[in-house]
Structures are given as C-alpha cells and as structure tokens.
TrEMBL record:
Keywords: Carbohydrate metabolism, Cellulose degradation, Glycosidase, Hydrolase, Polysaccharide degradation, Signal. It comes from the Eukaryota. This is Endoglucanase. It is an enzyme of class 3 (hydrolase). The keyword Signal applies. GO terms for molecular function: cellulase activity. SUPFAM superfamilies: Six-hairpin glycosidases. Its EC number is 3.2.1.4.
C-alpha cells in the first residue's frame, strides 16, 4: 500500500489520477519478484516433474501425450489457466525467456539456473515436437474438450489429440517461432552445454527451412482446432523474418542476414500502412509485440545486431524501431497506446498485461542499445533519452508489483495484496497431495464457482490485470483479468533481472 498516493488523492482529486502512477515511488524488491516470476513456470509444467520441482503442489501430468500415434510429446508447458499445450505461444514465451537471459542474465544471480531450467523445459519438448522431418507438432490437447472441463492437469481425461503441420498442411508462423526459440536458446546454452546447444541450433535450422519452404498459415491448415484460440492474425511473414534474425544472431551466417534483408521490406510494405498524425507506419512495426506480432521485436533485435556491422546505413531497422518507441511514449505526438489513470499501458483485446510486459522488455533493450550508440529518439519535437525509456518501463513494472491506485500487486505471492481467485484450473482445485481422488470434468465446477480464494498459490503468476480504470474484480470467471499466461511472465523475467541488477 502506498501512502503517498492516498494523500495526494485527497488533496487534489483531479490531479490524483495523473500523479498516482508517477508520484508514488514505492520501492520494490525486484530480486524477490524475479525469483517468483521464474517459479511460475514450474506451475505450468506438463509431463514428468523432476525431484528439483519447487512448486510441489503440482504433480506429474499428461504422461502419455503423443503415445496414441507413437510419438513422445510429453513435457512442455500449459499456456495459461487450462491444460492445452499450444506450441505457438509456448515458443514465443521460450524465445522471450531466452532473450531475457541473453540480455539480462548477469542480473539474475542465483535465479539464473532456474531460468535455464525454465528454458530447457520448453526446448526439450520442442526437440520432441520437431523430431520427425517434414512435420512439426503444434499443439497437444483438444481445446474444446479441455475448455469444457474444470480439471486438474493431473486428472485430465479429455482427448489429448496431437496436432501437426506438414508439407501439405503448413504452419509457417508456429514453425518459424519454434525455430526462433531453438536458435535463441542455443545461444543461451552455448557457454554451459555446448553439445545441447549444437543440437538446438541444428534443429532450429531444419525447422526454419521447413517453415520457409512450405509456406502457409496453420490457421488454414488446422482451422478451428487452433483458431479461435491462438489465431495467426498478423500473418506468418513476420515469424519467418524473426526466425531468420535469431538464426543470424546465433550463426552469423550471411544466408540468414540476406533473408532478413530481402524480406523486411516485403514484410513492411505488404501490410497496411497506417498514419498517425501524418507519420506513416509500415506493417505491424508499431505499438505491438507479442506471441502473434513480431515486427517491433525484429526491429529492436536487429538494431542492436547491426551496431557492429559495416554497410548497414540504409537498412530500415533503426528508423522503424525509433518510430515504434514513439508509439509508446505518452508525451509523443504519435503515441498509439492508451494509459490508465494510474499509468498502466493499455491496448484493446484481452490479457492486457502481456502488452505491458512485452513492450517494457523492448523499452529496456532499446534503451541499452541507444546508450551504447549514444543516441536519443526523436518523436516530432519530443526527444526521448534512454533514461526516459527505462523510466516508462519501470513505471509499468512498479505498477504490476503494486504501485497503483488499487494498491494491488498483480503477481501472485508478491506483496501484501494480490489476486486470490485466478482463472487457473490447477491453482483453484485442491492439490493432488491434499485430495488424491480424481476430480472429473464437471467435478471441478463447484470450485470454479466458489467465491473462496484459490487453494494453491501459483507463485509468480502475473494475471491479465485490471481494467482501464485501474480496478480489478478478482473473479475467477473473468478470465480477461484473472488468467495468467506464460507470455505475460516470460518477458517480465528479463525486465525484472534488469531492474534487479540496477538496484543492487
Ligand atoms: C525464491 O522463492 C522461493 C519460493 O518462494 C524461496 O523458497 C527461495 O528461497 C527464493 N530464492 C531466492 C534466491 O530468493
Ligand atoms: C487467421 O484467422 C484470423 C481470424 O479469423 C484472421 O483474422 C487472420 O487473418 C487469419 N490469418 C491468416 C494468416 O490467414
């Protein structure tokens, strides 16, 4: 709870909304939050849990995934509050965990081994999901069956249908994102386990080739099994360039750099041009970064990559990345996101907190790049220094950790007041240890409808978050607000590591 906010709020009610997010400089324990943000991934684990499992209310689950077709697909992560393994967002979360370690691993100290475990839990699974040449498994679990039940993962009895893309039925977005995840993770493991790293990189190249050679969207190939759940709204071209950028970073081979160069203009001009206050925005390179849209990530990643390269003067990455930053800063003439009165970044659609975390990640990464190259960003007449970008990101993180008008930490287990009724099957039902007897599909309904707090703490889970008026209902039914996801947490891991290293 933040005393400053309260006083300011009483004195000048009108100003309060503006001042709250800024004036309340409650200091946070970023190390504790970092620890918890990584711990969360243990709660999302599918498969056979190791003896090192710290979130012990979770047990083994889905131990026969893939067996009905003779493929081992055991492992990986449940994406959110349900028990489906959606590989598209899982791969993006993995790429972001890996990028977090590559960029900010030095600030993770004793949490680094746990971050590596979190990445490896995904990459071990992706090696399985890509083990048959010509196929990429993109999902395990019938999402309709799963969503119709409120069951613990340990009890699941809904169809664990495996879904794959192939040459005839391609899925370039999900395949290329898996390639990106494998390539980024290969870099993470290079200094630690060279053999594993080489395996990941080899597979990344193979999967990228497949994604590029057989182009198409899994939207079309798998239809209602994947979309409306994780539709590929932005097309698969961004994932192909993103995958190539990561492969270039990991291999330094010109073939991938040429791929990025040849496709970036096509990517940006094929999509709709948008105008904000007279400035044109090509493609998706503005105010958006997440499991679906990679444009801004490509521009920020490549801006840093080309710092050390000669002859890149005419490439669009830096100017695109600058424009992207200008769509986020509240004082910029081309700002195109909203901010709540308390200062939380908002974009339309569900699970808003994912935008606050992914965009904060790019803000701190780009701030470091600006600093290294002695640059600032010009947004019309507004000049933004690296420190300004960091400040915006810090405001988002502090908001998430409780510096907000509601005085609520949106990370489970962090701070005094945090969400108690998150939309998460395992967390809301009694643990297998407490209640070994199976709770079947509809057996969980009473727990779902209960007004009581969840029975198990999914420590570190960051939920979808409050509404644009900064209020939060804490209702399990309201999944837009109360559901955690892996892609909210994954970029936050890096941002917390950054602020942790700054404060210690
Ligand atoms: C991380 O959190 C866990 C669970 O809350 C705790 O047991 C552990 O001591 C923490 N580790 C560090 C390094 O803070
Ligand atoms: C995938 O489906 C969504 C929802 O119907 C649609 O908006 C999007 O354009 C589709 N993407 C592709 C690449 O076809």
């Amino acid at each position: 709870m933040c005393a400053v906010q309260r006083i300011v709020g009483l004195v000048v009610a009108v100003m309060a909304a503006m001042v709250m997010g800024v004036a309340c400089s409650q200091s946070h324990d970023y190390g504790d939050a970092l620890n918890k943000s990584i711990l969360f991934f243990e709660g999302q684990r599918s498969g056979k849990l190791p003896s090192s499992q710290r979130m012990t209310w979770r047990k083994d689950s889905a131990l026969r995934d893939g067996y009905e077709i003779g493929v081992d697909l055991v492992g990986g992560y449940y994406d959110a509050g349900d028990n489906v393994k959606f590989n598209f967002p899982m791969a993006f979360s993995t790429t972001m965990l890996a990028w977090s370690v590559l960029e900010f691993g030095k600030g993770m100290s004793s949490d680094l081994p746990h971050a590596l475990d979190a990445i490896r839990w995904a990459t071990d699974y992706f090696l399985k999901a890509t083990s048959i040449p010509g196929f990429v498994f993109v999902q395990v679990g019938d999402p309709y069956g799963d969503h119709n039940c409120w069951e613990r993962p340990e009890d699941m009895d809904t169809p664990r249908t495996p879904f794959a893309v192939s040459k005839q039925f391609p899925g370039s977005e999900v395949s290329a994102e898996i390639a990106a995840a494998l390539a980024a993770s290969a870099m993470v493991f290079r200094p630690i386990d060279l053999k594993y790293s080489a395996r990941l990189l080899k597979r990344a190249r193979m999967v990228f080739d497949f994604a590029d050679k057989y182009q198409g969207s899994y939207n079309d190939s798998l239809g209602p099994w994947v979309c409306p759940f994780y539709c590929d709204f932005s097309g698969y071209e961004d994932e192909l360039v993103w995958g190539a950028a990561w492969l270039f970073k990991a291999t330094k081979q010109p073939i991938y750099w040429n791929y990025v160069l040849q496709n970036i203009n096509k990517l940006e001009s094929s999509a709709t041009v948008k105008y904000i206050n007279g400035v044109s925005y090509l493609g998706g390179s503005f105010a958006e970064f997440g499991w679906d849209s990679k444009h801004a990530g490509i521009n920020v990643l490549v801006s840093k990559l080309i710092m050390s390269m000669a002859g890149t003067g005419s490439t669009p990455f830096i100017s695109n990345a600058d424009k992207f930053i200008c769509t986020l800063l509240p004082e910029s003439p081309t700002v195109s996101v909203s901010y709540s009165p308390g200062g939380l970044l908002f974009k339309p659609g569900g699970s808003n907190m994912q935008h606050a975390t992914t965009l904060s990640f790019l803000l701190v990464v780009y701030a470091r790049y600006l600093k290294l190259s002695n640059r600032v960003v010009h947004c019309g007449n507004v000049v933004a220094s690296p420190a300004r970008l960091v400040k915006l990101a810090k405001g988002q993180v502090d908001y998430i950790l409780g510096s907000n008008p509601f005085g609520m930490s949106y990370m489970v287990g962090y701070g005094k007041k945090f969400p108690q009724r998150i939309h998460h099957r395992g967390s809301s039902l009694p643990s297998v240890g407490q209640h070994p007897k199976q709770i079947d599909c509809k057996g969980g309904t009473d727990y779902y409808n209960s007004k009581n707090p969840n029975l198990n703490l999914l420590i570190g889970a960051v939920v979808g978050g409050p509404d644009i008026e900064d209020s939060y209902a804490d209702f399990r039914e309201d999944f837009v607000q109360s559901e955690p996801t892996t892609y909210i947490n994954a970029p936050l891991v890096g941002v917390l590591a950054y602020f942790n290293s700054r404060s210690s």
